[in-house]
Amino acid sequence: MRAGFLTILLVFLASLGYVIWHLWRITPGGWPAKLIVSAFFLAWMVLAFANMGISEKVSVKAATILTEIGHPWLIAFLYLLMTFILADILTVCKVIPNSFLKGSTSGMLTVLGLVALVMVLGSIHYRHKYREELTIRTDKPLEKPLTIVLSSDLHVGYSNRRAELARWIDLINAEKPDLVLFGGDIVDMHLRPVIEGGYAEEFRRLASPAYAVMGNHEYYGDEKGSERFMKDAGICLLRDSVANFKGLDIIGRDDRSNRVRKELSELTGSIQGFTIILDHQPSHLEEAEEAGIDFQFSGHTHHGQVWPLSWVTDAIFEKAWGHHSRGETQYYISSGLGIWGPKIRIGTRSEYLVLHINR
Fold first, then answer.
1. What tens digit of pLDDT does each residue of 105-164 get?
2. Contact, 301 vs 308, CB < 8 A?
3. Domains, the chain, ranges and CATH?
4. Residue 305: exposed, middle, or buried by beta-carbon count in 10 A (0-12, 13-18, 19+)?
5. Chain centroid to CA 234
6. What confidence tens digit (pLDDT) does each residue in 6-47 have?
7. Cα torsion for 3, 220, 79, 323, to the nearest 10°?
């Protein structure tokens, strides 16, 4: 574990040095101009990481402002890194001249302009919420055909604030579902903004019964506090437990962050109807198939949030996003309704699922 952390740290520092070196080279003018640009980029980085440690020590408003300003650095850094790597390759291949990356006004405006454009478009794209619809037919006994809205990874808090949550609740209520299910990471670690901001009042506007499971971010933050918040929000929290709704068996698994969570086999002994399992992280999908589960809903991956990190999640998980099946078991891995960190999506989408279960 320690070796892995050190490797990641070294790669990050090397990448940071590479980007700073290129920013220094490409900035036109003398060393004062180069120093200002490089110092600004480093200060922006410090702000991005410092906010993660001081957000609970300043006012909610100040922490929110710091989050809005600092977190986009993460995307800017990634895309500057990729842009400079591509430019170096094109220079070696003599597609672009060496002068393009050395004290070049046109080079600097091109690089920064492209990265800024991608980030702006990614921010606009994030604000659009995609409605995914899926219909499943079953011979298992149900009191009536059911419409369920499922979502995960809301990450409400400093980034996704109450006004945004209110819009999401309106989207869910507009579906007129029989049931609402949340697949974890409702709260983005810090409870203070959601409690002081009265976010629970928005959840209480849900016009249908709501169930949820814990995600890793509830564990990273305040596990007991998250439980209290869910109760205040009118959401029934399933922690390695089963609920029945109109002939539907809902299994809520505790997140893998709980090292002593129950085995799935311990939760399936009494199930009889159509079975949905909520399991935040889509690991070991074969377990649901082996247990005879009808449908599993997971989140966690965000599908990488921005390309090319989506390639990373695709490599890590059997299924990182979308509809999937194994045998008689069907799955949906959601890329999430909200987002962690910068409110930017590139090559991925924010979504909720409308699931119809018909007899």
1. 999 999 999 999 999 999 999 999 999 999 999 998 888 999 999 999 999 999 999 999
2. no
3. 2-126 (no CATH), 130-358 (3.60.21.10)
4. buried
5. 23
6. 898 999 999 999 999 999 999 998 989 999 999 999 999 998
7. 100
